[in-house]
Amino acid sequence: MIIPHNIIYSMTEFDDIINVQLLRKKYSEYEQSLSAEHPRRVGTIVKEFIEFIRYIKSYTRSDRLLNLLKEQEKVARRILILGRVKYFLFFLYNTLVNTLIMKLLNLIRILISII
Predict the structure, then answer these.
(1) Residue 19's closest CA among 73, 59, 47?
(2) In the chain, what are the domain boundaries?
(3) Conformational region of residue 110, where left means phi above 0, alpha means psi within -120 to 50, and beta covers everything else
(4) Is the pTM of the predicted complex or chain greater than 0.90?
(5) Residue 3, phi-psi category: left (phi > 0), alpha (psi -120 to 50), beta (remainder)
(6) Residue 45 and residue 26 in contact, taking contact as beta carbons nearer than 8 Å
(7) Which residue ranges run through the membrane (predicted)?
(8) Dist CA 46 CA 24 (whole Å)
(9) What are the DSSP calls for 79-105, one per residue?
(10) I want to staple 41 with a disulfide (CB 3.0 to 4.6 A). Which of 8, 37, 53, 101 is the partner?
């Protein structure tokens, strides 16, 4: 059986419509989960989102869409970097505070011994 070209073309359009609908649904799920989730869970969601973007980029032919996907990936990576920096800063903060507390305690002990 030979399928006419116009039917194949319309089937391709139908597949594209289905793919676009699935893409919209997935993006709206990410939008909801990123805006509603606890900040500790955001890192996991962003990692999943980056993998999703990479998958889409592998099938994208449009330069405009590819540029948007690259920008989304760039922003998502920045979110992950900030999450990592946050933990480093928290560790640094704790170390500095503990050091200063120990120094203050030593100074208090010195003052007490002098009095």
Answers:
(1) 59
(2) 37-86
(3) alpha
(4) no
(5) beta
(6) no
(7) 87-112
(8) 17
(9) HHHHHHHHHHHHHHHHHHHHHHHHHHH
(10) 37
